[in-house]
Design goal:
Strand content: 25-35%
Oligomer: single chain
Largest sheet: 5 strands, mixed
Radius of gyration: 22 Å
Number of helices: 3
Number of strands: 7
Distance between the termini: 35 Å
Structural class: alpha/beta
Helix content: 25-40%
Order of helices and strands: EHHEEEEHEE
Length: 160
């Protein structure tokens, strides 16, 4: 079975590469120093600092493994080449939420980068999935647990 492709924007790729570099170069060294200092204190069986440092080391190594897997299977969307006639991954869209009469703005990204607090929605979430392929002026209906939501596409632009 082939691993799932992680669709990333160039911005997302850079963010994950920087995080991986920081974990490997800076954080690993910091934790190794903490472990060394805790060992120098003697008995490890009752040493809370040693246990905490080992837990932190385990968390860092797990995150490094996760990031390496994401980057290994990354497929980067070149945002400059995104077709602005229809909504796709890498676009920023301005929509009119018909129920509330409010304008909302989303950046469509792959599921790995999605973060609703930053206005980044996944192409796999209900709203993102419904928006893919829509054009300016079209109204898109989205089935949600709370009922059907309707959005009118006002603008499609590059996210930069």
């Amino acid at each position: 079975m082939q691993a799932k492709k992680n669709i990333l924007t160039y911005e997302g790729l850079q963010k994950y590469e920087q995080e991986l570099h920081n974990l490997k170069v800076v954080r690993r060294h910091e934790v190794a120093e903490k472990i060394k200092e805790a060992r120098e204190q003697g008995d490890l069986s009752e040493n809370a600092e040693y246990d905490a440092a080992k837990d932190e080391q385990r968390d860092i190594e797990a995150r490094i493994e996760e990031l390496e897997k994401i980057l290994k299977n990354a497929e980067v969307v070149v945002e400059e080449e995104v077709d602005l006639n229809t909504i796709n991954i890498g676009c920023k869209v301005r929509l009119l939420d018909k129920e509330f009469g409010e304008e909302v703005e989303y950046k469509i990204v792959g599921s790995t980068e999605a973060n609703s607090l930053q206005g980044k929605i996944s192409n796999e979430c209900p709203v993102g999935k419904a928006l893919i392929g829509a054009k300016v002026g079209e109204t898109v209906s989205v089935e949600t647990p709370g009922g059907v939501c309707e959005y009118k596409v006002l603008e499609i632009q590059r996210s930069k």
